[in-house]
Amino acid sequence: MKEQHYRWDHPTSQHLDDPREDQRDACGVGFIANMTGKKSHKTLQDGLEILCNMDHRGGIAADNQTSDGSGILIQIPHGILKAEAEGMGRSLPEAGSYALGMMFLPGEAEEVIYWKTFLANLCSKFHLEVLFFRDVPVASETLGPIAKATEPEVTQCVVLDRPQAFSSKSLEWRLYLLRKHMEAEGVLRYGIKQRRFYVASLSLDSVCYKGLVQAKDLANYFLDLKDARFETAFAMVHQRFSTNTLPSWPLAQPFRMISHNGEINTLRGNINAMQARSFLFENESLLEDFQSLGPVCLPGMSDSSMLDNAAEFLVATGRPLAQVLSMLIPEPWEQNSEMESDLKDYYEYHSYVMEPWDGPAFVGFCHGHEIGAILDRNGLRPGRYWITRDGFVVMASEVGVLPRKPEEILERGRLRPGSMFLLNMKSGTIVPDATIKKELSAFRPYGAWLEQKRIHLDDLPLAKRQERERDSDSTSQQKLVSFGYSKEDLRLILAPMANQGKEPIGSMGNDAPLAILSQKRPLLYNYFKQLFAQVTNPPIDALREKLVTSLSVHLGAESNLLESTPKHCAVLKMSQPILTSLDLLRIEQSGLPYLRSVRISTTYLIDGNSLELELDTLAENVILAVERGIAIIILSDLDVGPSRAAIPALLAVSSVHHALMRSGHRSKCSLIVESGEPREVHHFALLIGFGAAAIHPYLALEMVAQGEKIFGFDPEICPEKRQINFIKSICDGILKTMSKMGISVLHSYRGAQIFECLGLSQNLINRYFSSTPGRLEGLDLEDIEEDIRARHGKAYLEAVSDSSLSDFSLSKSLSLSDNGIYAWRKGGESHLHRPEMIASLQKSVRRNSRDDFKAFCETIDRGSSGPLTLRNLLSFRKIRASIPLTEVEDIKSIVKRMATGAMSFGSISKETHETIAIAMNRIGARSNSGEGGEDFKRYSPDSNGDSRRSAIKQIASARFGVTSHYLTQADELQIKISQGAKPGEGGQLPGFKVDEEIARVRHSTPGVTLISPPPHHDIYSIEDLAQLIYDLKNANSKARISVKLVAESGVGTIAAGVAKAKADVILISGHEGGTGASPLSSVHHAGVPWELGLSETHRVLVENHLRGRVVLQTDGLLRTPRDIVIAALLGAEEWGIGTGALLTLGCVMMRKCHLNTCPVGIATQDPELRKKFQGQPEHLINYIFLIAEGVRELMAELGFSTLQDMIGRVDLLEKDPSITDPRLKKIDLSSILTPAKVSNMSIDEGSTYNDFALERCLDAAALIPACREAIETRRSVELSQSLTSFDRSTGTMLSAVISQKWGHGGLPDGTIKLQFDGAAGQSFMAFGAHGITAILMGEVNDYCAKGLSGATVIVKPEIGSLGQAEDQVICGNTALYGATSGHLYLRGKAGERFAVRNSGAHAVVEGLGDHGCEYMTGGTVVVLGEIGRNFAAGMSGGYAFVYDQKKASDRAINRELVHVEKCLQEKDALYLKKQLQKHFSYTASAVAARILNNWEQERAHFVLVIPIEYRDLMDRREAKQHPKPLTKTLDIDYMGGGIRE
Amino acid sequence: MSEVQGILKIDRKTPEKELPQLRLRHSKEFTTRLSRQHLAEQGSRCMDCGVPFCHNACPLGNVIPEWNQLTSEEDYRSALEALLATNNFPEFTGRICPAPCETACVLGLNEDPVSIEAIEMSLADLGFEKGWIRAQPPQLRTGRKVAVVGSGPAGLAAAQQLNRAGHLVTVFERAEKPGGLLMYGIPEFKLDKTRVARRIDLLKEEGILFRCGVHVGVDVTMAEMGEDFDATILACGAAKKRDVQIPGRESKGIYFAEQFLTSAVIWGSSGQALDGLKISAAGKDVVVIGGGDTGSDCLGTSLRQGAKSVTQFEIMPKPPELSKHPRHFERPSETPWPEWTYMLRTSTSHEEGGKRAWAHESVAFERDAQGQLTALITRELSWNKDSHGRWIHEVIPNSDRRWPCDLALVAVGFVGPEIEGPISELGIELGERGNIKADEIHYATNIPGVFAAGDVRRGQSLVVWAIAEGRRVAQSVERYLQSN
Fold first, then answer.
1. I want to staple A1318 with a disulfide (CB 3.0 to 4.6 A). Which of A177, A371, A1076, A1283 is the partner?
2. ipTM score of the complex?
């Protein structure tokens, strides 16, 4: 590594003033505890060892020495303290009667004095006193430079209860207050994001040692930890991997009560709700304490820290720890038909007390004598445990973190989604989840309370009054205009929803300008973009994993959080938030005192007061009503009319929501929006996201009911059904919007503000949408008012308007304007891809004419009809003299920086896909396979020298065609985290499009629908990504690893994490990216332009000295040389072109890709249409050279001879000073144009080599050398090795060597036999190739055999293991993910998501967690035990045999796509028996033996779970292929996609 | 919107035409509109493109995919409404528009394009037949008055738009009957004059006043009009004809195409001669100078009148002969899809007979002693492109040729508006090409309250452009009236 002289300064604010809490945690968590609370120093040492063994789960900063944080929470070292006290001549009271505080104080001596004095004084306020302070002995020299720069003065204080003091309050509570007051002083003294003063712990029982110290150095730094007098009964440890920029000492974990691996997605909503609730805190004795307490959740900290704050508060105010965690992280209960009703009642009751803190979470917690852990409702983090014979519990993110002999382990288990594990060290008992829950639910008569108080909407009496009279046609026409409806809204949005109950689908990306750039006065909604999960947490699949989601809402006031009374559940419960007019009437007429409602108008006199004043009045009116005890506020614009204009519903609801927050009334009422404005999913998602509880979209419902045929409504469907359909589509859409962010529960989503805002002024945001991240400062309230006025005027004032002149028609039904958002229209919204643009591009590349190309560029670079993109607002600042063109670097080197976008074979035709590859290969640039695999024939060059091999191979969530061989055939491996057109969403390739060839390439079965899950099931978190990168490096050590992200607020932070995870390339995709098919709301409302994402990413990476580690690439509507140069100046040294490439090959932006009707043979698989493809490699080559030549010309003009010098030079850009448009003038581009705060820009690409130490991994060091000869000669070899959890991706590199040499077919089965023992690390045998048999005696962690490509993997317990093997968990989560062929035999149980997206492997396992066989498309799985919940969700192919002796599988199976054959067909039974025999012979499985011994009886206990579509397909195939000997067909049929090439 | 099979299965279909030998026997229209079933089928060939190039190519911005879709759903009335939303007179454009939309149709890349014009015509005719198209008098009158000078398509469109906005519109027409080029410039066999009359009647019914036979600038001055009207729109066309200034031009038997065509229309409708002069091609050898649409109209009219022979001359070389609906790879690289293809076009008149000669330059007319035309002398040109892609020509030596003829029709276009009249009276500013100067947003001349639209402003062009300009000038006048 080269010498680095970085100044490790600590930027005061991070990259941008982004109010979103952008600290993201992901980590390894673990604890060890003695079951009877026996203290020892050994336990502390074991804790440290656990920590060290999870080192790979943590992050390291750019100095390669500073950890993101590690720590240990242990019992107070009474022995040490006692000795110290004595040394000072003081006596320490007995353990448990004093508290130890662990503080980080600022380094300056005067500050230390200040704090010590302050603390001493403060203590007296709470009848406490400081016995002594203690400088904790540390060895600073063990720290890395970054850690050292912020190293605190680590000080402990011993705090005593004042001997004679009388206080009615418990010591614990006073300690809590003491700490809160100290924290408040810290904020007061150093500001809200301060990291200078911090209390790591202040407790009677425990103390936390933590910091930016590497795990291995924790005890070297904190010398106490080496002191043998330090004894503890438990040790909870945490290893942090944070994506945030510069890690900080206080954010290291554990916190005082919990350690958290995961992320809280709904944080903003939770913080707000907690804040709102604090106004309702009532407790006589503590009242004044609350008034001085400050916020429960200390602002400016991480999500985990806030979760800790909340837990701590609830415990401090009297709730048992288990109850607290079950409230914060409840298991999914609503859709769980197996749950006891008492427990359901318990959860329901508490859902009215508090919303879940939603997101992936493995939380270890401890308090007093209780220690335990809980997993989130989705089970998105691993949690494995051992119970040992000598009375210890070891719980950790991984198994094998402590060396233990098999005979020492009594039980091996894992936490299930939503379940809790609790050890009571006092009683020495492990309380099982069921017992905990039983106790909790029996605590109060929740069921009776609910029965008594809570009421369902359906139980309310039918409304007495008739519905409101329908507006006359002309009135509703005027309303439509005043709310800005267009023909497209009716025809393309409402009608499809009303007809089919589904959100409309579109294709290709969004090329219309951002709202702030539009000349069409877009609705306020359009200024907001949906945020989505990437890398640090997974989006979820609301469709297939419905059981964890909930859309239910309740109306009514909340009650005091500190109590539990029947009053708390005095609410109105509804199953979803969209109300019909009858629903609303019923609510209004409920007559229940706690559901009193009032309708408050959100319209105002157009000639009256200013909007600002009106908003104030509105808020006042609402507050007055709430003060009168009204619990339901209906914000209504029903009275909009000639003299009254409607406040945009979003502005109305959000301003009221925040006013209520400020005034402390928020939790006393629910807001219902009754508005004519909302009509598409994004609108509803926003209204709820900013505080609405329910919405009655009266105008949209009315239009749906009217259902005019001219707008495409189906007259065959009755109006009521159309409304139901519409409501269903909106609800599904809201659910999808939530799940994109990984949120499962609407209650938590409400008010969570999961949006960012582009183009509104900070002023406006602060006032009405506070804490929403906002960039591109823009419109003020006056501008919005002007828009309202304009729309209102159009509807009511202009008797004969311009529009009626230009669009006159016979009837008025067509007089709505044609917005041209979804399809280009003259006079409608502008689009980048407009006719002249497409025509001139195609003309110039076909003629290879520079003149034509210049004309084309002008259509884009000069937004003739206003700016289309943010870069249209920029101009170059010339600060250098121009140079001659000849001095500029060669065109060929520029061309090499180009790549085409990821477009799968399947989404585009073979011809198109190969033409692109040929073109890019000819010029040394890179084409991208997309996510559909690649035909192996393309790996060897054509006879004319052309190569059809894609240089970039993509790894997407479905892993289609991702085999060991595929991975070896790439120069770059790209992990697609998100896609610009639909970030956070999966996709679906319907069966009819999956022809023989596509199926072959994707390793699936023709005719079988292929579903891509929203997340990568092996990336739920940043350390998972690091693991996948490591896997891929093993699979192809020469390829660059690229990670594709989509621009959104905070993407820079995520990218920093990705850089730390050792990616070589980060691609920042703009939201404009194309798609073969996406819901329209995703295409238009998620993600931001690359200009924002790229500049943020570059800046954050530079500021964190990480820029040199990665190459930055960007894409998103890059079309001209100017675009490329701007991308370079904003930080990207490589650029991608997707749709642009298609345009050169003939694409005419039909936007019909999802229909398979592409008339130019590009986005279609129809053989007739494919014949129409006319593209030639030369067209694309011409384009790229025309661009590159243009780039050279611009370089010459700007005075740069090499591109590398231009990267990140934002100082060469400025906002175009010639802009005169008043709205455009308001846009503030500083979020793009601000240079990095660090001056030394070490950005030489790849200047820092990402060291994976691959040469030291087992494969490189031992396996490959030993197998070298076998691989060359195909002679068999056998060897044995011991494994530890440090050995990750074992077998992957070996497989790569085989695939490289022999292709996918690999070696003959069993050529290489590997005998392992121990606990294998993650990704054991990932992408294992044909020819390897790996036998492991021991257990495995997550991702075992993922991407399996032909190998046989056998895992069985070590000899001497205790207990029944079939009851023990032997394998982690997500085994066999994306496997294409091979075998896996597990003697024991596996975790969650077994065989997800398996398309050809064959497995036998003895029990599963939830979501087994999800999205499976082929292969077979035999389960000899329980199958968890949601089995076979989204399974479209393959066979799953379940041994269902208890007949319990029925409820566990998700039957959307599959049916269950209770009686096995003979051929299936034959196969099953054969597999069991194999299983027995490989693993000596007792279950298999039992079944085989009694086969004829036992076979009846098996059921076959098989997709309906797949069974038909197989039957038909068989009919065709007959006659064939039965056993023979078996082998063929069950091969599924496992084709050998 | 269509299924892929729709595009692949259904062929393009256009209205049936009478056989040339039969249709030459009369001067009426000779096409029949699509049957209802064919109409829906043809509509279903439309692919509802994300970027509808047809819609872009249409000067009116007809939202073609929208009415195609409604047509395919057999909701003809709604389809017609969608059509009428942007086009005042689809019964005209459905017949005489060269249909740049079809040239730009995306389906036309690889297939025969959607028969957009035929659908348009059929919808319009159906609208009249069913009574869906009827007078739409304004509900309210604003009390403002607007004068429109010229009753061609631009003037009529402007008048209709403004009248619907409640203004009282008076249209001035120099000729006896309103309609301008629609009435007199286009032969009966392409546009039945009863259709023009029917439209005029509807406009009258809507409340528009017509004052025919009034030559503004002669019979009534602009100054006088200014007192009566709040605004005036000049839509009086590009009436100044281009001539061929060659020896012998003064011979008898040489006429401008317009004289010939107008005379034919008047004769056809009233049996009267134009200005007492009936120009007939019967039994004559006719030469038509000018290879454009007007020339082709002259050819068809001459044949119908019983000409002995008709020869049409074009100075430019013969464009490439492509298939009728050339696929994009056939089209010349200079005018690729979706541009207007540079190709040989054969009008219905060309189907009927006559000869066409390319790259022929007229050199002189010969006449007999009585001054009667006897022959046209031409010579051939050789055309090439220079380095900038511009056409240049050389005369081919010794290529002179003599074409005996009795009647010569000059159809080489117009050079701009006539200056005498309003332009000279008010001193209206002209642009470089001799047309009235007015931008494409405001359509306002340098004289306040005086606007210009159609050929008088943009120069000789298509009917569809005239309607488009008429609509836009109306919008501008509306804004003007609101702010004054």
1. A1283
2. 0.94
